[in-house]
């Protein structure tokens, strides 16, 4: 690619609304352009990154035996009614009508459609196991689509769905996907961690998330550096971690819904004592809507007095607002330092979002375990106690892990999620096959998502400096940029640049020749912003000595390399 024939349009300033670094840098580099809240055009360089991520994901999915198909973006409501999610999904599901007033959804995920495919296509145990996947546009009407590609409303996901004869076989499919994900995130060049996770509104009983480690992540991970143990405390919907960011707070205040229904605090019945991680467990139900929907606490935390204040929130409905002092009706005292590890600034006001029932688990017990019945609300009894409950109660960085060693906490970005679904969807949609004895049996399922577009942003959150992005080579918009100094004036420079350019291209290197003939300062600033992993500078002075300068984006110093060795050095 030659820069003069490409579309480069870098900006000095990021839009004011861009709160996270990936959003700022992707916009400044011209990789994405916003068209509506949470909806972006992937500009040419953004699309290149996306395609490279897709290619790695596709290769590893195929290697793991999964089969690609492509399901539609628009799905009929009937399938969602069959599974029950038409009622359960809530406002994240975009519902539309066609000209005949028939209901459709814009898919946020594809369990229903694939289960419908399976019940029509799979008849016999001989066809199993099978794992179908696609890479497709998703739409989720996210409450706060404010982080660029990190949390878009329209975004690109790889989602795979496995079908098996029984639970043992389904577990093997799950394990194969888990292993494929390890390979995918390793090849993408990211530092990541697989963690035990909640199953959210997808449902099912077992799940792991793949988290890209980054201080700016919305999730909080508890892990033991000396063992396999790692879990997500999933504070993704808890803006407390962002409380220090004024724009976020303002946005929350704007969402106040003063006439929301009365809430009922049930923390005590839950019998969950406060810990440094679970800052306060207060669950609120709306008597009008019943237990199908619940809200979580709103707290004030105060470093000076070490107090956590919880208010019943008459105005806490389908939105957020900050409690006034007058609304505080319970005060919990906590040990000094309590408010530190979760990043609460002094006197911060913390707001925690509402959750659906399926999401209750991740706050209270970290998993949506079977047997969690909310009809007839008696939350204090028969509460399951998965390992995670104990961890959530007690865990804080530096505390001992009951299994040995000490626990640590870090922030992460959820980029992948594997679920063991069992027969949740296959039973609802009656997806069966004939077993060896000729009798019908219900298919066992798993589902496996990867946030393809989120990965591009997560890579930046993890790898950047004050000059711009630093791409892992595998997914960089360009692997190498050639920066000739004074290409318009010097034949030697032009010839050297052209010949290295052609040689790199011949070797399959994704190279761009910056032949715009701009000032070196402008050229360098652009490519540092864009984050090309390698920059080769060719100038008259160096060439006279037979030297080019190769600068790795991560390094402080450029390397002086003999012109004749440049190709080999880059490869
Ligand atoms: P989150 O907790 O961040 O809202 P999720 O748990 O709702 O994500 P899943 O249903 O597990 O998401 O979807 C699979 C993957 O799709 C996620 O691991 C994530 O990488 C990606 N993803 C989910 N929501 C978004 C979004 N709004 N924008 C970009 N990627 C997303
Ligand atoms: Mg979500
Ligand atoms: Mg999640
Ligand atoms: Mg998830």
UniProtKB/TrEMBL annotation:
Keywords: Aminoacyl-tRNA synthetase, ATP-binding, Cytoplasm, Ligase, Nucleotide-binding, Protein biosynthesis. InterPro entries: aa-tRNA-synt_IIb, aa-tRNA-synth_II, aa-tRNA-synth_II/BPL/LPL, Anticodon-bd, Anticodon-bd_dom_sf, Pro-tRNA-ligase_IIa, Pro-tRNA-synth_IIa_bac-type, Pro-tRNA-Synthase_IIa_type1. GO terms for molecular function: proline-tRNA ligase activity. It catalyses: tRNA(Pro) + L-proline + ATP = L-prolyl-tRNA(Pro) + AMP + diphosphate. Residues 38-472 form the Aminoacyl-transfer RNA synthetases class-II family profile domain. The keyword DNA-binding does not apply. CDD domains: ProRS-INS (cd04334), ProRS_anticodon_short (cd00861), ProRS_core_prok (cd00779). It is an enzyme of class 6 (ligase). The keyword Protein biosynthesis applies. Its EC number is 6.1.1.15. NCBIfam families: PRK09194.1 (NF006625), proS_fam_II (TIGR00409). Consists of three domains: the N-terminal catalytic domain, the editing domain and the C-terminal anticodon-binding domain. Homodimer. Catalyzes the attachment of proline to tRNA(Pro) in a two-step reaction: proline is first activated by ATP to form Pro-AMP and then transferred to the acceptor end of tRNA(Pro). As ProRS can inadvertently accommodate and process non-cognate amino acids such as alanine and cysteine, to avoid such errors it has two additional distinct editing activities against alanine. One activity is designated as 'pretransfer' editing and involves the tRNA(Pro)-independent hydrolysis of activated Ala-AMP. Belongs to the class-II aminoacyl-tRNA synthetase family. ProS type 1 subfamily. This is Proline--tRNA ligase. It comes from Castellaniella hirudinis. The gene is proS.
């Amino acid at each position: 690619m030659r820069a003069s024939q490409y579309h480069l349009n870098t900006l000095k300033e990021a839009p004011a609304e861009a709160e996270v670094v990936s959003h700022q840098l992707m916009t400044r580099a011209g990789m994405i352009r916003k068209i509506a809240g949470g909806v972006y055009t992937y500009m040419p360089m953004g699309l290149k990154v996306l395609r490279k991520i897709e290619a790695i994901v596709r290769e590893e999915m195929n290697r793991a035996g999964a089969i690609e198909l492509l399901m539609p973006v628009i799905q009929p409501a009937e399938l969602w009614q069959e599974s029950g999610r038409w009622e359960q999904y809530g406002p994240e599901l975009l519902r539309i009508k066609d000209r005949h007033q028939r209901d459709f959804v814009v898919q946020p995920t594809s369990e229903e459609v694939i289960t419908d495919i399976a019940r029509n296509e799979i008849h016999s145990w001989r066809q199993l196991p099978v794992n179908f996947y696609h890479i497709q546009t998703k739409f989720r009407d996210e409450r706060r689509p404010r982080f660029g590609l990190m949390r878009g409303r329209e975004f690109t996901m790889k989602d795979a769905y496995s079908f098996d004869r029984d639970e043992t076989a389904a577990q093997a499919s799950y394990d194969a996907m888990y292993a494929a994900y390890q390979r995918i995130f390793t090849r993408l060049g990211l530092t990541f961690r697989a963690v035990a996770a909640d199953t959210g509104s997808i449902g099912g009983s077992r799940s792991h998330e793949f988290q890209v480690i980054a201080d700016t992540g919305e999730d909080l991970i508890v892990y033991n550096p000396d063992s396999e143990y790692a879990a997500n405390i999933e504070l993704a919907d808890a803006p407390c971690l962002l409380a220090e960011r004024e724009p976020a707070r303002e946005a929350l205040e704007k969402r106040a819904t003063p006439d929301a229904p009365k809430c009922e605090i049930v923390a005590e019945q839950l019998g969950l004592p406060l810990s440094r991680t679970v800052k306060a467990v207060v669950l609120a139900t709306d008597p009008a809507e019943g237990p199908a929907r619940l809200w979580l606490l709103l707290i004030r935390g105060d470093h000076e007095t070490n107090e956590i204040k919880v208010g019943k929130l008459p105005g806490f409905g389908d939105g957020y607002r900050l409690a006034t002092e007058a609304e505080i009706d319970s005060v919990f005292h906590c040990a000094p330092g309590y408010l530190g590890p979760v990043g609460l600034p002094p006197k911060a006001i913390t707001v925690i979002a509402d959750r659906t029932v399926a999401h209750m688990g991740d706050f209270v017990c970290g998993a949506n375990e079977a047997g969690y019945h909310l009809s007839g609300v008696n939350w204090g009894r028969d509460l399951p106690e998965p390992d995670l409950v104990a961890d959530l109660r007690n865990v804080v960085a530096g505390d001992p892990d009951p299994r040995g060693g000490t626990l640590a906490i870090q922030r992460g970005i959820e980029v992948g999620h594997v679920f063991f679904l069992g027969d949740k969807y296959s039973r609802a949609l009656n997806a069966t096959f004939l077993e060896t004895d000729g009798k019908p049996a219900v298919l066992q399922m798993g589902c496996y998502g990867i946030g393809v577009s989120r990965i591009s942003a997560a890579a930046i959150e993890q790898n950047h400096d004050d000059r711009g992005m630093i791409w892992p080579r595998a997914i960089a918009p360009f692997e190498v940029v050639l920066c000739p100094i004074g290409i318009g004036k010097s034949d030697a420079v032009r010839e050297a640049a052209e010949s290295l350019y052609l040689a790199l291209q011949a070797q399959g290197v994704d190279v761009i020749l910056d032949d715009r003939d701009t000032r070196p300062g402008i050229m360098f600033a652009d490519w540092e912003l864009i984050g090309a992993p390698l920059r080769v500078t060719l100038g008259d002075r160096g060439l006279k000595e037979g030297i080019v300068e190769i600068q790795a984006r991560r390094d402080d110093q450029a390397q002086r390399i003999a012109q004749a060795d440049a190709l080999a050095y880059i490869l």
